[in-house]
Design a protein that fits this description.
Length: about 350
C-alpha cells in the first residue's frame, strides 16, 4: 500500500529477489499513475534479472475502508505491507507552515493519528477478508503498531527505524550478518538523542558496546532521511520474502507484535520472536523503549495514547482536549480533531 519513495524502493528490491517459486506484487495506491510507473520499472527489472516477479498497480483511496476492503478481497494476499500514511515526513522540508513549525517544536509523536490512519483501515479490512494474511506496517511502527494492537488489529511487525540502525551498525562493524548483533532502539534514535544517556543500546557477541553515537554518525548525516528509504526498501523486501518463504533470519524489527520501539528478532517459519542479548529480559527491553517513546512524543499502553511532555505542552493551547492523549477506541474522533488543527495551521505562515 503506497506509491511514495519507500513503496518504490521496496518494489525495486523485490524485482530482483531470489524467489524461485514466483511472486505477485499488487501495489495499491491513491496515485494510480505513480503506482503504474513503479510497477512498470519494477517489472522491467524483474525481466532483466530473470526473476519470476509480477507487479500490478491498483488505484484505491487508502482512507476509504470500503474501497480498501474490496481491493484486498480481490487481491487475496498472503500478506500486506503498508508504506503509506496521511502525513508526509518530508512536509517540514517541502512545505513549511505553522503546522510544520509545530511538529518541529513538539516532535514526531504528534503525527501518530495520521501515521496510523491508513494502517488501521488496511488492518481492519484485512482482518475481515483474509485473517490468515500477515500485516507489516512501515508507518511509524514504534508507536502505530501498539495502537493497532490496542484496536484489535493484529500486526507482525514494522520495518525501518531499529532495522536501519542495525544495518548501519552491521556495516560499520564489518559484520557479515546480524546474528552476533543485538540492538534495542527506537525511531527516536534515527537522530542522535539530546541526552547521550538516551542512546540506543547495542551488544556485539553479548558484550555491551560503547561509542554507539560515533558508529551511527555516518548514517545520521544522510540529509533529511529520504535516502534511507533505499535501505529500508531492501529491508522490507527481505522481511516480506522471509515471511513468505518460511526462511530463518536473525535481524531487527520495530513494533514486533505491537510492542513499542525496536528489538533484535529471529524470524522462523513465518513467526517473529524476540532475540534479546544475554542478561536482558523482555520487560527491561520494553521499559527502555517506553522511556524513549515518551521522548519521541507518543506512547501507547493500557489501551490509551499518552503524549510525551513536548507534545502535551504544544497541544495544550491548541487542542487541549487531546493534550494528554486519548483512548485507542477514540482514534477516529482524535484524527478528525487533529486534521482540523492541521488544516488551520497549514494556512498560516511560519513565524519567528
Amino acid at each position: 500500500m503506497g506509491s511514495g519513495s519507500l513503496a518504490r524502493a521496496t518494489c525495486l528490491a523485490l524485482s530482483t529477489a531470489d524467489t524461485s517459486a514466483g511472486l505477485s506484487v499488487v501495489l495499491l495506491a491513491r496515485d494510480g499513475k505513480a503506482a503504474a510507473g513503479i510497477c512498470h520499472i519494477a517489472g522491467v527489472r524483474a525481466a532483466l534479472s530473470r526473476r519470476p516477479v509480477r507487479f500490478t498497480a491498483v488505484p484505491v483511496d487508502p482512507t476509504d475502508p470500503a474501497a480498501v476492503g474490496a481491493a484486498l478481497a480481490a487481491a487475496a494476499p498472503d500478506g500486506v505491507l503498508v508504506c503509506a500514511s496521511t502525513q508526509s515526513p518530508w512536509e517540514p522540508a517541502d512545505r513549511p507552515s505553522a503546522w510544520t513549525a509545530l511538529l518541529r517544536r513538539a516532535g514526531f509523536g504528534l503525527t501518530l493519528p495520521f501515521q496510523a490512519q491508513v494502517a488501521l483501515a488496511v488492518g481492519a479490512a484485512l482482518r475481515r477478508s483474509h485473517p490468515a494474511a500477515f500485516l507489516v506496517n512501515a508507518a511509524f511502527p514504534d508507536a502505530v503498531n501498539p495502537l493497532l494492537t490496542a484496536c484489535d488489529v493484529p500486526v507482525v511487525s514494522g520495518v525501518g527505524n531499529v532495522a536501519i540502525l542495525a544495518a548501519a551498525l552491521q556495516a560499520a562493524l564489518g559484520l557479515p550478518d546480524q546474528a552476533r548483533l543485538h540492538v534495542i532502539g527506537h525511531h527516536l534514535h534515527l537522530h542522535a538523542p539530546a541526552d547521550p544517556g538516551d542512546e540506543a543500546l547495542v551488544w556485539l557477541d553479548g558484550t555491551r558496546l560503547d561509542g554507539v553515537t560515533d558508529l551511527l554518525a555516518a548514517d545520521r548525516s544522510t540529509g533529511d532521511g529520504r535516502g534511507r528509504n533505499d535501505v529500508t526498501g531492501l529491508l522490507a523486501a527481505e522481511l516480506v520474502t522471509t515471511l513468505l518463504t518460511g526462511a530463518t533470519r536473525d535481524t531487527h524489527l520495530p513494533g514486533v507484535a505491537g510492542l513499542p520501539g525496536g528489538y533484535p528478532v529471529r524470524i522462523t517459519a513465518g513467526e517473529v520472536a524476540l532475540r534479546l542479548p544475554p542478561g536482558v529480559d523482555r520487560d527491561q527491553a520494553v521499559e527502555a523503549n517506553r522511556r524513549w517513546a515518551l521522548r519521541d512524543g507518543a506512547l501507547v499502553e493500557d489501551g490509551r495514547v499518552r503524549f510525551g511532555p513536548s507534545v502535551a505542552g504544544a497541544l495544550a493551547p491548541l487542542l487541549p482536549a487531546y493534550a494528554e492523549g486519548f483512548a485507542a477506541g477514540e482514534v477516529a474522533e482524535a484524527t478528525a480533531a487533529f486534521q482540523a488543527l492541521r488544516e488551520r495551521l497549514r494556512s498560516q505562515p511560519v513565524t519567528s
